[in-house]
Amino acid sequence: MKKALLSVSDKTGIVEFAKELSALDYELYSTGGTKKTLEAHDVAVKSVSELTQFPEIMDGRVKTLHPHIHGGILADRDVPEHLEALNELGIELIDLVVVNLYPFEQTVARPDVTEEEAIENIDIGGPTMLRASAKNFKHVLTVVDPADYAAVIDKIKHDQADYQFRKSLMLKVFDHTNHYDAAIVNFFSNKVTTLRYGENPQQAARFVKTSAAPNTIAGARQLHGKALSYNNIKDADAALQLVKQFSVPAAVAVKHMNPCGVGTGETIAEAFQHAYEADDQSIFGGIVSLNKEVDKETAEQLKAIFLEVVIAPSYSSEALELLTQKKNIRLLEVQMHGDEETEEFVSVSGGYLVQDKDQKVLSPDEMTVVTKAQPTAEQWQAIELGWTVVKSVKSNAIVLANDKHTVGIGAGQMNRVGSAKIAIERAAAIDDHVIMASDGFFPMSDTVETAALAGITCIVQPGGSIKDQESIDMADKHGIAMVMTGMRHFKH
Ligand SMILES: NC(=O)c1ncn([C@@H]2O[C@H](COP(=O)(O)O)[C@@H](O)[C@H]2O)c1NC=O
């Protein structure tokens, strides 16, 4: 009589499957829980202890780890010495192995999981049987997936459990144990964090970390607040990347992956005040990054508004005391210096794209004035600020800025003049201190004209359009100073 060993954590479909196997004249053996389930449904089944002559010990840590099980699975039926060895030792052949594993992944997906629970859910006996029977797939059928029960019965019934079918079951096993082991590595190395959900609640999500560097979001130290959400992580990274570009004290507020206010100052408190004034409406519920230690004064300002996340290299003890009074704010400590990853990835169907990060920072002496009017000294400072920010805004990007902060930001429009109109509309006031920065060239002169009508007197843009001259003429007509950088900063 053929023997089948059934040891499953997921008991779905096991009773029906076992009944079919019995009907096909298989003698069934099971571990404790599986045996109980089968007996509760009147399936005749024996304990694996009858094969091992050994009880299950240590809360199930050892139940099938025994030569009487593994000899019976691993014997190569084509090698007479193998069969002789079994015969001498009284080991019987096992022809079919049905195993699915302790639910490690489901266990560690629980936010309150303890390390002990995770450890107890590392299955040892199950993968050992799976690997043994899959290795001997020419002689032993291995079923790891309850979804295959019906097909296995069908194949056995019709005598069609041939080499190809057995091999397909074998591949499924090694794929499964491979995935299972990877989940263990990921959990214990903290490389993968399961998130509550993705961009929206209906999307499952996880954070796969490739670095633990303290100058990255993955390596950030969370000092306070709830776990970061998927959107928090993305926005926090956008805010971090931009604030790192400044050497002077700077503050960046981000909403939905775009900066909504960026400010610089003599102190970090002044920088934040400027970022806040840049757009005191959009910052609500935003993510704020600061490139210097948060002091008490800054903390008081931060505390006064609702923010999801604050990112800074450090916090004074008074600042921490103030900010931790807010239950819903998340505080991250991230270093602003150190090596940067030089490449970035984005997935597309069927693959992913890799590119160098857009890290080149241009200084004013690398830019060319192409108009009769020249930028003032103050406008040059505004150009530096605006040009730094525009790199971090989704294309088509238009940034209005003075030497202290952004004034209006137009992001992600499908035509450039549309972004310019939004930036202008968001600006509280436009005076001679305000410059316009554009991440791409002007395909025609309409954006320059829109800028002129809004009172803008200085523009910085890459140049490179075949119609550059029309834009320059339009700038000259309105007395606008135009600077070309020769470098564009699209961000899709
Ligand atoms: N330790 C062992 O010898 C062992 N043998 C089988 N298992 C696992 O025990 C589970 C089934 O247990 P039960 O039939 O008691 O519900 C299966 O997920 C199986 O993979 C074991 N458990 C863990 O390693």
Task: Please describe what this structure looks like.
Helices cover 37% and strands 20% of the residues. It starts with a strand and ends in an 8-residue tail after the last strand. The radius of gyration is 33 Å and the shape is elongated. A hairpin with a 2-residue loop joins strand 9 (250-255) and strand 10. It has a 6-stranded mixed sheet. The chain contains 18 helices and 21 strands. By secondary structure, the protein is an alpha/beta fold. The model has no long low-confidence stretch (mean pLDDT 96). Ligand FAI binds at residues 7-9, 31-34, 60-65, 99-102, 123-126. The site of the ligand NC(=O)c1ncn([C@@H]2O[C@H](COP(=O)(O)O)[C@@H](O)[C@H]2O)c1NC=O has 21 residues, from strand 1, helix 2, strand 4 and helix 8.
Proportion of beta-strand residues: 15-25%
Q: Which quaternary structure do these chains form?
A: single chain
Helical element count? 18
What share of residues is helical? 25-40%
Mean pLDDT: 96
The unique ligands bound to this protein are: the ligand NC(=O)c1ncn([C@@H]2O[C@H](COP(=O)(O)O)[C@@H](O)[C@H]2O)c1NC=O
- Sum up the overall morphology in one term: elongated
What radius of gyration results from the CA coordinates? 33 Å
Distance between the termini: 65 Å
The major β-sheet equals: 6 strands, mixed
Give unreliable regions as ranges.
none
Q: Can you list the strand order of the major beta sheet?
A: 8-13-12-11-9-10
Q: What structural class do helix, strand and pairing data support?
A: alpha/beta
Using DSSP, what is the number of strands?
Answer: 21
GO cellular component, one term: cytosol
EC number: 2.1.2.3, 3.5.4.10
GO molecular function: IMP cyclohydrolase activity; phosphoribosylaminoimidazolecarboxamide formyltransferase activity
InterPro entries: AICAR_Tfase_dup_dom_sf, Cytidine_deaminase-like, MGS-like_dom, MGS-like_dom_sf, PurH-like
